[in-house]
Design brief:
This protein has 134 residues and is of the alpha+beta class. 33% of the residues lie in helices and 39% in strands.
């Protein structure tokens, strides 16, 4: 059995800026506080949070991004999950529709549910509101 997450977040920035915040390693470092790598091509390398998570880019367009996701905490034999973002313009800025699929256990899925808010989208929104102001 696998477990999937479907979440939505609304960010103050416009979709093009949110996509930059998701794909530019310099900007990722600024809002996340950790080193990042994202090669902007299918098959490109992806890393975040000082290498805690690694994967490869599955899709990248103006409004969609997808990559595999495997943390260094998971057993070597664990399969990577997939993260899919869809950005839609919203009156407040951007609605981010996130699907994180393929968790092998429910506890890990629940941990990531909280992590997407606490370590990803809250810091990104703080960056937009406090530092970026664009």
């Amino acid at each position: 059995m696998v477990f999937d997450l479907a979440l939505e977040f609304v960010l103050s920035g416009k979709p093009a800026r949110v996509m930059q915040l998701l794909t530019d390693p310099v900007l990722i470092r600024k809002w996340s506080g950790g080193e990042a790598v994202l090669e902007k091509k299918e098959g490109g390398r992806f890393e975040m949070f000082d290498g805690w998570v690694k994967g490869s880019v599955l899709k990248i367009t103006d409004c969609e991004l997808a990559y595999t996701w495997k943390t260094s905490d998971w057993p070597k034999e664990a399969k990577p999950t997939e993260v899919h973002y869809l950005l839609k313009e919203d009156e407040a800025g951007t609605k981010v529709i996130l699907h994180h699929t393929g968790f092998e256990d429910e506890a890990e899925m629940k941990s990531h549910r909280a992590g997407w808010t606490d370590y990803f989208f809250d810091p990104m929104e703080d960056f937009i509101l406090i530092i970026d102001k664009s």
